[in-house]
Amino acid sequence: MRLLVSLVCFIFIGTLSCGADRPNVLIIMADDLGWADLGFQGSKDILSPNLDRLATRSVRFTDGHVTASVCSPSRAGLMTGKYQQRFGHEANTPPADKGMDVEQVTMADSLRKQGYRTGVIGKWHLGDEEQYYPTGRGFDYFYGLREGSRSYFYNAKKDDKPNSNRRIEHNGQHVVFDGYLTDVLGDKAVEFLKDDSADPFFLFLSFTAPHGPMHATETDLAKFSHIENKKRRTYAAMIWAMDRAIGRVLDQLDSSGQADDTIVWFLSDNGGATNNGSINLPLAGHKGIKFEGGIRVPFLMRWTNRFANGRLFNPMVSSLDIFATSLAAAGGDVEAAKLDGVDLLPFLEGKRSESPHEELYWHKLWFSAMRDGPWKLIYVQGYGYALYNLDDDLAESKNLADAHPDRLNSMKNRMVTWKEGMQEPRWGEAEQWFKTHSKNHIRIIEGK
Q1: Which residues of 392-414 are buried (b: 16+ CB within 10 A; e: fewer)?
Q2: Tens digit of each residue's pLDDT (9 = 90 or more) over 89-117
Q3: Which residues form the Sulfatase N-terminal domain (predicted)?
Q4: 359-445: which CATH topology?
């Protein structure tokens, strides 16, 4: 057990690094979670006592963003610390023969070189074929599904058929599971943490909840019988189960003595979806579009040994920064990694006072966005641009494009230049998504 601090040090590329100096890293990711749908985010009907407990001891990033408003490209940005458009991972759900570019170095690759044992539990969604499999992308251990969603219960005739990419696997072997999948993923995470290795660990706990299909146990549903809307009731039960699983993981860290020296990140892969009963208010929009409800997410970091007390951090940060910050904490060379994310530690320690990012960019096929401090630019193909000041209008309800033409043009030119430096998308999406999301963007821009 890591309760006994190893006296053995390892030499990595001429640098002496001891296990006691390298914190564990745990990323917990929810799937399609609404901005307002946790207790610490102000929800009155969703219960999340374990995440609320985590939030009280965490740095809470109030302006924290993911790199895409849909699942797969968001995860590609997280895993590489780079804008996923740099390697063509722009659209959602890679086709059968595509996945996250194998030339990219992942966070797991880098931390394994620092002496970490690495694991991913849950949703992968970065390619189905063997060359994209987690154990070939820096992870020693994988328990989960290759695809993006599945039933929360074992189904041998559908998701768990031998040839299904939605089946649950353990390092390439199809496995049968009992019970509710969210609970199972939590149990597997606890097992991973119980390993008696003296090496630090990196675990990516990637829940499918509360992404559809909307499945919950009868016991969990009964707890929310007071919620009249059936979809919202099921959604609440799914988050309750996820929070319960997270609680078991946090309890294991506590009981093993690892909690204080484990960096725990929590975030969602994108905003709440239109089909799962989520609420993103007061943010505009939802999963799939470039308004804040699609890309601004609940975002926490706990590292008790370095930051003993919970607090708010209001400057703009990105999921890109998780790789850089974790690598820096592990003693790695962030500059050599050439990431788009930045090491947040100097900012959190007060050694740097500026914002970690003055600009952030988003783009997927037909829609783009850019932040320049509080200013936000949105582009819709075939329609044009909208401009907002989030300091004054977090709900993005007042389009200032006509009032600030110089600012609009300046940001537009920088956005175009940024996009020109990216790789062409390696796959696309069906035309229906352009039509659907174009209407959603325009509806919000025009206040309809």
Answers
A1: eebbbeebbbeeeeebbeebbee
A2: 999 999 999 999 999 999 999 999 999 99
A3: 23-331
A4: Arylsulfatase, C-terminal domain (3.30.1120)
